[in-house]
Amino acid sequence: MNERQRMQRDWDQLKRSRAPKRPPGALNNPWVLLGAVVACLAFLLAVFALIGALGKPAMNGPGTAAAPSPDDVDRLTSYAVILGRAGGCGRDTTREAERVGRWIERRFPEESRAAYFAVVMTGMAREAEAQHRGERPDSCAEVLRVYDSTPWP
User: Is the pLDDT assigned to residue 57 strictly greater than 70?
Assistant: First the structure.
């Protein structure tokens, strides 16, 4: 190795040693980044919904849904988990997610809909990320079997 090559090697090592170090996985993984973006959007949506709901009187007239039942909330969280895990396995869940969104619009009061949408979006992002990283006990084959057999609204 000649002098020029040694200098170049030393220069490259110096540049690498001074480069800012990111912890492993810190926004390097596109799934983590997507989850962070979705969580931020869901939070903002929930905050705006809360601000909007505080300034409006409760609406109980025609065309508005009554308070959601505990069964509706259970179904909502189940849909979020199934959609998120299937998304983490690479399945396109757009059509079913749209169906769940229309169901939310029918079943949940207008003043709290945005908060419920935020719950679904955050849950989907969290489950997709966890499934993709292998942190869930079910294999993708099992997840997709459940997804395909789910009676969507």
Answer: no
